[in-house]
Design a protein that fits this description.
The chain is of the alpha/beta class. The protein has a domain of 294 residues: Aldolase class I (TIM Barrel), CATH 3.20.20. Helices cover 35% and strands 19% of the residues. The protein contains 17 helices and 17 strands. The strands form 2 sheets. Strands 5, 6, 7, 8, 9, 10, 11, 12, 13, 14, 15, 16 and 17 form a 13-stranded mixed β-sheet that branches. A 4-stranded antiparallel β-sheet has the order 1-2-3-4. A hairpin with a 6-residue loop joins strand 1 and strand 2. Helix 5 packs across helix 7, helix 11 packs parallel to helix 12 and helix 14 runs antiparallel to helix 15. The longest helix is centred in the C-terminal third of the chain and has 16 residues. It starts with 7 loop residues before the first strand and ends with a helix. The chain binds iron/sulfur cluster (2 copies). One iron/sulfur cluster binds next to helix 16.
Protein backbone atom coordinates (compact mmCIF):
# COMPACT_ATOMS: atom_id res chain seq x y z
CA UNK A 1 0.00 0.00 0.00
CA UNK A 2 1.61 3.34 -0.97
CA UNK A 3 2.17 5.63 2.01
CA UNK A 4 -0.09 8.67 1.87
CA UNK A 5 2.17 11.05 3.74
CA UNK A 6 5.25 11.68 1.66
CA UNK A 7 6.71 14.16 4.13
CA UNK A 8 7.64 11.98 7.06
CA UNK A 9 10.22 11.11 9.70
CA UNK A 10 12.58 8.24 8.96
CA UNK A 11 15.76 7.00 10.61
CA UNK A 12 19.13 8.00 9.21
CA UNK A 13 22.76 8.20 10.31
CA UNK A 14 24.89 11.06 11.53
CA UNK A 15 27.40 11.33 8.70
CA UNK A 16 30.21 11.97 11.17
CA UNK A 17 29.74 9.39 13.96
CA UNK A 18 27.32 7.06 12.11
CA UNK A 19 24.92 6.98 15.09
CA UNK A 20 21.26 6.50 14.19
CA UNK A 21 19.34 9.79 14.24
CA UNK A 22 15.78 10.73 13.24
CA UNK A 23 15.50 12.56 9.93
CA UNK A 24 12.69 14.54 8.37
CA UNK A 25 11.85 14.13 4.70
CA UNK A 26 10.49 17.50 3.59
CA UNK A 27 9.39 19.12 0.37
CA UNK A 28 10.68 22.56 -0.58
CA UNK A 29 10.62 24.40 -3.93
CA UNK A 30 9.57 21.28 -5.79
CA UNK A 31 12.43 19.23 -4.33
CA UNK A 32 12.71 16.70 -1.51
CA UNK A 33 15.28 17.15 1.26
CA UNK A 34 16.43 15.15 4.25
CA UNK A 35 17.04 17.15 7.48
CA UNK A 36 18.59 15.69 10.60
CA UNK A 37 20.39 16.62 13.78
CA UNK A 38 23.08 14.77 15.69
CA UNK A 39 23.35 15.93 19.32
CA UNK A 40 27.10 15.89 19.01
CA UNK A 41 27.76 16.92 15.39
CA UNK A 42 24.98 19.34 14.59
CA UNK A 43 22.52 19.84 11.75
CA UNK A 44 22.63 18.34 8.27
CA UNK A 45 20.46 19.01 5.26
CA UNK A 46 20.80 16.95 2.10
CA UNK A 47 19.06 16.79 -1.25
CA UNK A 48 17.14 13.50 -1.24
CA UNK A 49 15.20 13.56 -4.53
CA UNK A 50 15.32 16.56 -6.84
CA UNK A 51 11.82 16.45 -8.32
CA UNK A 52 8.77 16.30 -6.04
CA UNK A 53 6.35 15.16 -8.73
CA UNK A 54 8.58 12.23 -9.72
CA UNK A 55 8.96 11.45 -6.02
CA UNK A 56 5.18 11.19 -5.78
CA UNK A 57 4.97 9.02 -8.90
CA UNK A 58 7.65 6.63 -7.64
CA UNK A 59 6.11 6.40 -4.18
CA UNK A 60 2.93 4.94 -5.70
CA UNK A 61 4.84 1.67 -6.06
CA UNK A 62 5.65 0.62 -2.52
CA UNK A 63 5.23 -3.06 -1.94
CA UNK A 64 6.05 -5.49 0.82
CA UNK A 65 7.84 -8.77 0.74
CA UNK A 66 8.41 -11.04 3.71
CA UNK A 67 12.23 -11.24 3.70
CA UNK A 68 13.91 -14.48 4.75
CA UNK A 69 12.36 -17.28 6.74
CA UNK A 70 15.84 -18.29 7.97
CA UNK A 71 17.00 -14.83 9.04
CA UNK A 72 19.16 -13.95 12.06
CA UNK A 73 17.87 -12.38 15.22
CA UNK A 74 17.74 -8.61 15.61
CA UNK A 75 19.23 -7.31 18.84
CA UNK A 76 20.86 -3.92 18.42
CA UNK A 77 18.70 -2.21 15.81
CA UNK A 78 19.25 -1.36 12.15
CA UNK A 79 21.91 -1.12 10.71
CA UNK A 80 23.94 -3.01 13.34
CA UNK A 81 22.11 -6.34 13.03
CA UNK A 82 22.84 -7.01 9.37
CA UNK A 83 22.98 -10.69 8.82
CA UNK A 84 20.25 -10.57 7.22
CA UNK A 85 18.22 -9.91 10.37
CA UNK A 86 14.57 -10.72 10.83
CA UNK A 87 13.51 -7.11 10.27
CA UNK A 88 14.88 -7.14 6.75
CA UNK A 89 12.11 -7.21 4.16
CA UNK A 90 13.76 -8.37 0.93
CA UNK A 91 15.78 -11.47 0.13
CA UNK A 92 18.98 -11.21 -1.88
CA UNK A 93 18.30 -10.46 -5.55
CA UNK A 94 21.97 -9.95 -6.33
CA UNK A 95 24.70 -11.23 -3.99
CA UNK A 96 28.05 -9.46 -4.18
CA UNK A 97 31.30 -11.11 -3.20
CA UNK A 98 34.45 -9.02 -3.07
CA UNK A 99 37.26 -11.24 -4.33
CA UNK A 100 40.05 -8.85 -3.44
CA UNK A 101 40.62 -5.23 -2.46
CA UNK A 102 43.65 -5.09 -4.74
CA UNK A 103 43.13 -2.98 -7.83
CA UNK A 104 45.05 -2.01 -10.94
CA UNK A 105 43.81 1.58 -10.52
CA UNK A 106 43.34 4.04 -7.65
CA UNK A 107 40.10 5.92 -8.20
CA UNK A 108 38.99 8.64 -5.80
CA UNK A 109 35.34 7.41 -5.96
CA UNK A 110 36.03 3.78 -4.97
CA UNK A 111 34.15 2.01 -2.15
CA UNK A 112 36.97 -0.45 -1.60
CA UNK A 113 40.00 1.22 -0.12
CA UNK A 114 42.95 -1.11 0.34
CA UNK A 115 44.40 1.05 3.15
CA UNK A 116 47.57 -1.05 3.24
CA UNK A 117 45.81 -4.35 4.05
CA UNK A 118 45.01 -7.11 1.61
CA UNK A 119 41.50 -8.51 1.82
CA UNK A 120 41.35 -11.57 -0.36
CA UNK A 121 39.12 -14.46 0.68
CA UNK A 122 40.33 -17.99 -0.03
CA UNK A 123 38.54 -20.31 -2.43
CA UNK A 124 37.05 -22.15 0.57
CA UNK A 125 35.75 -18.89 2.04
CA UNK A 126 34.30 -17.88 -1.33
CA UNK A 127 32.52 -21.23 -1.63
CA UNK A 128 31.09 -20.77 1.89
CA UNK A 129 29.88 -17.26 1.05
CA UNK A 130 28.19 -18.58 -2.08
CA UNK A 131 26.61 -21.37 -0.02
CA UNK A 132 25.23 -18.77 2.44
CA UNK A 133 23.58 -16.99 -0.47
CA UNK A 134 22.15 -20.19 -1.90
CA UNK A 135 20.93 -21.24 1.58
CA UNK A 136 18.54 -18.28 1.84
CA UNK A 137 14.91 -19.31 2.25
CA UNK A 138 12.27 -19.25 0.93
CA UNK A 139 14.17 -18.11 -2.19
CA UNK A 140 17.81 -19.06 -2.70
CA UNK A 141 19.74 -16.07 -4.05
CA UNK A 142 19.57 -16.40 -7.87
CA UNK A 143 22.43 -14.10 -8.95
CA UNK A 144 26.00 -13.48 -7.85
CA UNK A 145 28.40 -10.68 -8.77
CA UNK A 146 32.12 -10.87 -8.15
CA UNK A 147 33.55 -7.48 -7.34
CA UNK A 148 36.44 -5.83 -5.54
CA UNK A 149 38.88 -4.04 -5.81
CA UNK A 150 39.33 -5.47 -9.23
CA UNK A 151 38.11 -9.11 -9.39
CA UNK A 152 40.01 -9.86 -12.60
CA UNK A 153 43.27 -9.66 -10.63
CA UNK A 154 42.37 -13.07 -9.18
CA UNK A 155 44.06 -15.71 -11.30
CA UNK A 156 41.47 -18.23 -10.12
CA UNK A 157 38.50 -16.13 -11.32
CA UNK A 158 37.44 -18.71 -13.97
CA UNK A 159 37.44 -21.45 -11.28
CA UNK A 160 35.37 -19.23 -8.97
CA UNK A 161 32.83 -18.61 -11.76
CA UNK A 162 32.66 -22.33 -12.50
CA UNK A 163 32.07 -23.02 -8.78
CA UNK A 164 29.19 -20.49 -8.79
CA UNK A 165 27.67 -22.32 -11.71
CA UNK A 166 27.97 -25.58 -9.84
CA UNK A 167 26.14 -24.11 -6.85
CA UNK A 168 23.16 -23.24 -9.02
CA UNK A 169 23.34 -19.48 -9.55
CA UNK A 170 21.41 -18.71 -12.74
CA UNK A 171 23.11 -15.34 -13.25
CA UNK A 172 26.85 -14.87 -12.72
CA UNK A 173 28.48 -11.53 -13.34
CA UNK A 174 31.62 -9.56 -12.59
CA UNK A 175 32.04 -5.83 -11.93
CA UNK A 176 35.26 -4.74 -13.60
CA UNK A 177 37.19 -1.77 -14.95
CA UNK A 178 37.91 -3.87 -18.07
CA UNK A 179 41.69 -3.34 -18.08
CA UNK A 180 42.49 -7.05 -18.05
CA UNK A 181 39.93 -7.70 -20.74
CA UNK A 182 41.56 -5.03 -22.89
CA UNK A 183 44.97 -6.60 -22.29
CA UNK A 184 44.10 -10.16 -23.13
CA UNK A 185 41.71 -11.79 -25.57
CA UNK A 186 42.72 -15.11 -24.11
CA UNK A 187 41.58 -14.02 -20.65
CA UNK A 188 38.19 -13.01 -22.11
CA UNK A 189 37.91 -16.46 -23.70
CA UNK A 190 38.71 -18.18 -20.40
CA UNK A 191 35.99 -16.19 -18.62
CA UNK A 192 33.51 -16.94 -21.36
CA UNK A 193 34.26 -20.65 -21.15
CA UNK A 194 33.91 -20.73 -17.37
CA UNK A 195 30.20 -19.78 -17.54
CA UNK A 196 30.25 -16.02 -16.96
CA UNK A 197 26.89 -14.51 -17.97
CA UNK A 198 27.37 -10.77 -17.78
CA UNK A 199 30.12 -8.20 -17.43
CA UNK A 200 29.35 -4.99 -15.50
CA UNK A 201 31.86 -2.65 -17.11
CA UNK A 202 32.84 0.58 -15.37
CA UNK A 203 32.18 3.16 -18.09
CA UNK A 204 32.18 6.87 -17.26
CA UNK A 205 31.75 8.43 -20.67
CA UNK A 206 32.55 8.44 -24.35
CA UNK A 207 35.50 10.85 -24.36
CA UNK A 208 38.76 11.16 -22.46
CA UNK A 209 37.68 13.94 -20.04
CA UNK A 210 35.53 12.10 -17.46
CA UNK A 211 38.13 9.34 -17.15
CA UNK A 212 40.89 11.84 -16.51
CA UNK A 213 38.85 13.46 -13.73
CA UNK A 214 37.40 10.34 -12.09
CA UNK A 215 40.05 7.69 -12.80
CA UNK A 216 43.16 9.83 -13.23
CA UNK A 217 43.83 8.90 -16.88
CA UNK A 218 42.09 8.46 -20.23
CA UNK A 219 40.61 4.99 -20.18
CA UNK A 220 38.18 5.35 -23.07
CA UNK A 221 40.47 3.52 -25.56
CA UNK A 222 40.84 0.75 -22.95
CA UNK A 223 37.04 0.39 -22.72
CA UNK A 224 36.80 0.11 -26.50
CA UNK A 225 39.51 -2.53 -26.58
CA UNK A 226 37.86 -4.45 -23.73
CA UNK A 227 34.53 -4.45 -25.57
CA UNK A 228 36.24 -5.59 -28.74
CA UNK A 229 38.06 -8.46 -27.03
CA UNK A 230 34.92 -9.57 -25.21
CA UNK A 231 33.00 -9.48 -28.48
CA UNK A 232 35.66 -11.64 -30.14
CA UNK A 233 35.53 -14.04 -27.21
CA UNK A 234 31.79 -14.52 -27.73
CA UNK A 235 30.50 -12.43 -24.84
CA UNK A 236 27.04 -11.00 -25.64
CA UNK A 237 26.01 -9.40 -22.38
CA UNK A 238 27.80 -6.30 -21.13
CA UNK A 239 26.17 -3.68 -18.92
CA UNK A 240 27.86 -0.28 -18.92
CA UNK A 241 28.17 1.20 -15.43
CA UNK A 242 28.76 4.97 -15.36
CA UNK A 243 29.26 6.65 -11.97
CA UNK A 244 27.57 10.00 -12.55
CA UNK A 245 28.61 13.25 -10.88
CA UNK A 246 27.62 16.82 -11.68
CA UNK A 247 30.37 18.76 -13.43
CA UNK A 248 32.25 15.53 -14.17
CA UNK A 249 30.23 13.54 -16.69
CA UNK A 250 26.61 14.70 -16.35
CA UNK A 251 26.85 16.12 -19.88
CA UNK A 252 27.64 12.63 -21.23
CA UNK A 253 24.49 10.74 -20.13
CA UNK A 254 22.89 10.93 -23.60
CA UNK A 255 26.19 10.12 -25.33
CA UNK A 256 26.57 6.96 -23.24
CA UNK A 257 23.08 5.83 -24.30
CA UNK A 258 23.89 6.52 -27.95
CA UNK A 259 27.14 4.61 -27.63
CA UNK A 260 25.28 1.63 -26.14
CA UNK A 261 22.69 1.72 -28.90
CA UNK A 262 25.51 1.50 -31.47
CA UNK A 263 26.89 -1.60 -29.76
CA UNK A 264 23.73 -3.56 -29.12
CA UNK A 265 25.35 -6.80 -30.26
CA UNK A 266 27.22 -6.83 -26.96
CA UNK A 267 25.85 -4.03 -24.74
CA UNK A 268 22.55 -5.10 -23.21
CA UNK A 269 22.09 -2.29 -20.73
CA UNK A 270 23.35 0.71 -18.83
CA UNK A 271 23.22 0.95 -15.06
CA UNK A 272 23.81 4.59 -14.16
CA UNK A 273 25.07 5.08 -10.62
CA UNK A 274 24.72 8.62 -9.24
CA UNK A 275 27.77 9.30 -7.11
CA UNK A 276 27.65 8.26 -3.43
CA UNK A 277 30.09 10.09 -1.16
CA UNK A 278 32.60 8.25 0.98
CA UNK A 279 34.02 9.89 4.10
CA UNK A 280 33.53 13.45 5.23
CA UNK A 281 32.63 15.78 2.35
CA UNK A 282 31.81 19.46 2.78
CA UNK A 283 28.29 20.60 1.95
CA UNK A 284 29.56 22.82 -0.88
CA UNK A 285 31.26 19.92 -2.65
CA UNK A 286 28.23 17.68 -2.14
CA UNK A 287 25.90 20.31 -3.58
CA UNK A 288 28.25 20.76 -6.50
CA UNK A 289 28.50 17.07 -7.42
CA UNK A 290 25.28 15.46 -6.13
CA UNK A 291 23.05 13.94 -8.78
CA UNK A 292 19.80 12.21 -7.88
CA UNK A 293 17.77 9.78 -9.97
CA UNK A 294 15.34 12.50 -11.20
CA UNK A 295 18.33 14.65 -12.26
CA UNK A 296 19.59 11.77 -14.34
CA UNK A 297 16.23 11.17 -16.00
CA UNK A 298 15.97 14.88 -16.82
CA UNK A 299 19.54 14.94 -18.21
CA UNK A 300 18.65 12.05 -20.50
CA UNK A 301 15.51 13.82 -21.61
CA UNK A 302 17.46 16.97 -22.46
CA UNK A 303 20.42 15.27 -24.07
CA UNK A 304 18.32 12.86 -26.12
CA UNK A 305 15.91 15.48 -27.48
CA UNK A 306 12.97 13.85 -25.70
CA UNK A 307 13.54 10.50 -27.41
CA UNK A 308 13.62 9.23 -23.83
CA UNK A 309 11.81 11.22 -21.15
CA UNK A 310 11.39 11.11 -17.38
CA UNK A 311 7.90 9.64 -17.90
CA UNK A 312 9.39 6.51 -19.44
CA UNK A 313 11.02 5.48 -16.14
CA UNK A 314 9.53 3.46 -13.29
CA UNK A 315 10.90 2.41 -9.92
CA UNK A 316 12.24 -1.10 -9.35
CA UNK A 317 9.16 -2.39 -7.43
CA UNK A 318 6.97 -1.48 -10.41
CA UNK A 319 7.53 -5.05 -11.68
CA UNK A 320 6.53 -6.62 -8.34
CA UNK A 321 3.25 -8.01 -9.85
CA UNK A 322 5.33 -10.08 -12.30
CA UNK A 323 7.13 -11.73 -9.37
CA UNK A 324 3.74 -12.41 -7.81
CA UNK A 325 2.47 -13.90 -11.06
CA UNK A 326 5.42 -16.29 -11.37
CA UNK A 327 5.09 -17.21 -7.67
CA UNK A 328 1.38 -17.99 -8.12
CA UNK A 329 2.02 -20.02 -11.24
CA UNK A 330 4.89 -22.09 -9.91
CA UNK A 331 3.35 -22.49 -6.46
CA UNK A 332 6.64 -21.54 -4.79
CA UNK A 333 8.08 -18.13 -3.82
CA UNK A 334 10.20 -16.42 -6.47
CA UNK A 335 12.66 -13.49 -6.24
CA UNK A 336 10.62 -10.34 -5.74
CA UNK A 337 11.69 -6.81 -6.59
CA UNK A 338 10.27 -5.26 -3.42
CA UNK A 339 13.06 -2.75 -2.91
CA UNK A 340 12.34 0.85 -1.88
CA UNK A 341 10.95 2.95 -4.75
CA UNK A 342 13.62 5.65 -4.28
CA UNK A 343 16.52 3.24 -4.78
CA UNK A 344 16.34 2.77 -8.51
CA UNK A 345 14.62 3.50 -11.81
CA UNK A 346 14.48 1.66 -15.11
CA UNK A 347 13.01 1.46 -18.56
CA UNK A 348 13.60 -0.47 -21.77
CA UNK A 349 14.15 1.13 -25.15
CA UNK A 350 13.91 -0.40 -28.58
CA UNK A 351 16.14 0.69 -31.49
CA UNK A 352 14.44 1.23 -34.80
CA UNK A 353 15.58 3.19 -37.88
CA UNK A 354 18.36 4.84 -35.92
CA UNK A 355 15.97 6.02 -33.18
CA UNK A 356 15.37 4.78 -29.67
CA UNK A 357 11.76 4.10 -28.74
CA UNK A 358 10.97 3.45 -25.07
CA UNK A 359 8.58 0.53 -24.71
CA UNK A 360 6.28 2.78 -22.70
CA UNK A 361 5.35 4.48 -25.99
CA UNK A 362 3.59 1.41 -27.32
CA UNK A 363 2.82 -0.63 -24.22
CA UNK A 364 0.51 0.69 -21.52
CA UNK A 365 2.82 -0.66 -18.84
CA UNK A 366 0.84 0.77 -15.93
CA UNK A 367 -2.41 -0.79 -17.18
CA UNK A 368 -0.67 -4.11 -17.82
CA UNK A 369 0.92 -4.28 -14.35
CA UNK A 370 -2.38 -3.36 -12.72
CA UNK A 371 -4.14 -6.10 -14.66
CA UNK A 372 -1.53 -8.65 -13.56
CA UNK A 373 -1.79 -7.47 -9.94
CA UNK A 374 -5.61 -7.73 -9.91
CA UNK A 375 -5.71 -11.19 -11.49
CA UNK A 376 -2.99 -12.58 -9.19
CA UNK A 377 -4.75 -11.19 -6.12
CA UNK A 378 -8.06 -12.70 -7.25
CA UNK A 379 -6.32 -16.03 -7.88
CA UNK A 380 -4.63 -16.04 -4.46
CA UNK A 381 -7.96 -15.66 -2.68
CA UNK A 382 -9.96 -18.21 -4.72
CA UNK A 383 -10.02 -21.68 -6.19
CA UNK A 384 -9.36 -20.41 -9.72
CA UNK A 385 -6.98 -22.62 -11.67
CA UNK A 386 -3.55 -21.27 -12.64
CA UNK A 387 -4.45 -21.76 -16.30
CA UNK A 388 -7.55 -19.68 -15.95
CA UNK A 389 -5.67 -16.87 -14.18
CA UNK A 390 -3.02 -16.81 -16.87
CA UNK A 391 -5.64 -17.04 -19.60
CA UNK A 392 -7.40 -13.95 -18.21
CA UNK A 393 -4.13 -11.99 -18.42
CA UNK A 394 -3.07 -13.24 -21.85
CA UNK A 395 -6.50 -12.59 -23.34
CA UNK A 396 -6.22 -8.94 -22.39
CA UNK A 397 -2.66 -8.31 -23.63
CA UNK A 398 -3.73 -6.71 -26.96
CA UNK A 399 -5.67 -4.11 -24.93
CA UNK A 400 -2.39 -2.81 -23.52
CA UNK A 401 -0.42 -2.69 -26.78
CA UNK A 402 -0.67 -0.01 -29.46
CA UNK A 403 0.82 -1.85 -32.45
CA UNK A 404 0.40 1.26 -34.62
CA UNK A 405 3.00 3.08 -32.49
CA UNK A 406 5.37 0.13 -32.19
CA UNK A 407 8.58 -0.01 -34.25
CA UNK A 408 7.74 -1.45 -37.68
CA UNK A 409 9.68 -4.70 -37.45
CA UNK A 410 8.33 -5.71 -34.08
CA UNK A 411 5.16 -7.55 -33.17
CA UNK A 412 4.92 -6.42 -29.58
CA UNK A 413 1.83 -8.43 -28.80
CA UNK A 414 3.46 -11.64 -29.99
CA UNK A 415 6.68 -10.95 -28.10
CA UNK A 416 4.85 -10.14 -24.86
CA UNK A 417 2.66 -13.19 -25.22
CA UNK A 418 5.75 -15.36 -25.66
CA UNK A 419 7.36 -13.89 -22.53
CA UNK A 420 4.24 -14.18 -20.38
CA UNK A 421 3.06 -17.49 -21.81
CA UNK A 422 6.26 -19.48 -21.52
CA UNK A 423 8.19 -17.36 -18.97
CA UNK A 424 11.25 -19.28 -20.19
CA UNK A 425 14.73 -17.82 -20.17
CA UNK A 426 14.70 -18.05 -24.00
CA UNK A 427 11.66 -15.82 -24.36
CA UNK A 428 13.00 -13.36 -21.79
CA UNK A 429 16.35 -13.43 -23.58
CA UNK A 430 14.63 -12.66 -26.89
CA UNK A 431 13.06 -9.60 -25.24
CA UNK A 432 16.45 -8.52 -23.85
CA UNK A 433 18.17 -9.06 -27.20
CA UNK A 434 15.83 -6.67 -28.91
CA UNK A 435 15.88 -3.95 -26.30
CA UNK A 436 18.36 -1.88 -24.31
CA UNK A 437 17.88 -1.76 -20.55
CA UNK A 438 18.35 1.68 -19.01
CA UNK A 439 18.57 1.60 -15.25
CA UNK A 440 19.83 3.70 -12.37
CA UNK A 441 20.60 2.83 -8.78
CA UNK A 442 21.46 5.56 -6.34
CA UNK A 443 23.61 3.95 -3.65
CA UNK A 444 23.29 5.70 -0.33
CA UNK A 445 25.94 7.53 1.65
CA UNK A 446 25.77 8.65 5.28
CA UNK A 447 24.44 12.07 4.21
CA UNK A 448 21.27 10.79 2.51
CA UNK A 449 20.94 7.41 4.25
CA UNK A 450 17.33 6.35 4.82
CA UNK A 451 17.02 3.19 6.90
CA UNK A 452 13.63 2.45 5.30
CA UNK A 453 15.53 2.06 2.03
CA UNK A 454 18.15 -0.08 3.73
CA UNK A 455 15.57 -2.40 5.28
CA UNK A 456 14.19 -3.16 1.78
CA UNK A 457 17.56 -3.53 0.06
CA UNK A 458 17.85 -6.46 -2.37
CA UNK A 459 21.54 -6.02 -3.31
CA UNK A 460 23.70 -7.62 -0.66
CA UNK A 461 27.25 -8.62 0.19
CA UNK A 462 28.17 -12.05 1.46
CA UNK A 463 31.09 -11.87 3.93
CA UNK A 464 33.42 -14.56 5.29
CA UNK A 465 31.75 -14.85 8.72
CA UNK A 466 28.53 -16.07 7.09
CA UNK A 467 26.60 -12.83 7.26
CA UNK A 468 24.70 -11.32 4.34
CA UNK A 469 24.85 -7.52 4.54
CA UNK A 470 22.84 -5.03 2.45
CA UNK A 471 25.11 -3.18 0.02
CA UNK A 472 24.57 0.34 1.39
CA UNK A 473 24.96 -0.91 4.95
CA UNK A 474 28.17 -2.75 4.10
CA UNK A 475 29.83 0.19 2.35
CA UNK A 476 28.86 2.78 4.96
CA UNK A 477 28.93 0.83 8.21
CA UNK A 478 30.42 -2.68 8.11
CA UNK A 479 33.08 -2.82 5.38
CA UNK A 480 35.99 -1.47 7.43
CA UNK A 481 35.36 -3.91 10.25
CA UNK A 482 34.95 -6.96 7.96
CA UNK A 483 38.09 -6.13 5.98
CA UNK A 484 40.09 -5.52 9.16
CA UNK A 485 39.04 -8.91 10.57
CA UNK A 486 39.69 -10.87 7.41
CA UNK A 487 42.66 -9.05 5.91
CA UNK A 488 46.18 -10.27 5.67
S1 LIG B 1 19.72 -3.33 7.02
FE1 LIG B 1 18.36 -5.08 7.07
S2 LIG B 1 19.62 -6.76 7.82
FE2 LIG B 1 20.68 -4.85 8.33
S3 LIG B 1 20.00 -4.43 10.41
FE3 LIG B 1 18.67 -3.29 8.98
S4 LIG B 1 16.90 -4.61 8.68
FE4 LIG B 1 18.53 -5.87 9.57
S1 LIG C 1 22.07 -1.19 -2.67
FE1 LIG C 1 21.44 0.73 -1.69
S2 LIG C 1 20.39 1.77 -3.36
FE2 LIG C 1 20.49 -0.36 -3.97
S3 LIG C 1 18.61 -1.35 -3.23
FE3 LIG C 1 20.13 -1.54 -1.63
S4 LIG C 1 19.77 0.21 -0.27
FE4 LIG C 1 18.81 0.66 -2.21
Amino acid sequence: MPPTNLEKTVSSLCPICLKVVPAQIVQEDGRIYMQKRCQEHGDFRELYWSDASLYKKFNRYWCNDQGLTNSRSALNGCPLDCGLCRNHLTGTLLGNIDLTNRCNMACPVCFADAGGRIYEPTMDQIREMMRSLRAERPVPCPAVQFSGGEPTLREDLPEIIAAAKGLGFSQIQIATNGIRMAESLNFCKRLEKSGLNTVYLQFDGVTAEPYKVVRGRDLFPTKLKALDNMRRAGQTSVVLVPTMAKGVNDYQAGGIVRFASQNLDIVKGINFQPVAFAGRIEQEERDEKRITIPDLMILLEEQMDNEITRDDFYPVPFVFPISQLITAERGSPQPSFAVHPCCGAATYVYKYNGHLVPITRFIDVEGLMEKVRIEVEAFNGSSLSKLKMKGMILKEIPRFVDESRAPGDLSVTKMLLRVLRSGTMDSVREFHNRTLFLGAMHFQDPYNMDLERLQRCGVHYAVPDGRIIPFCSYNNVHRKDVEARFSK
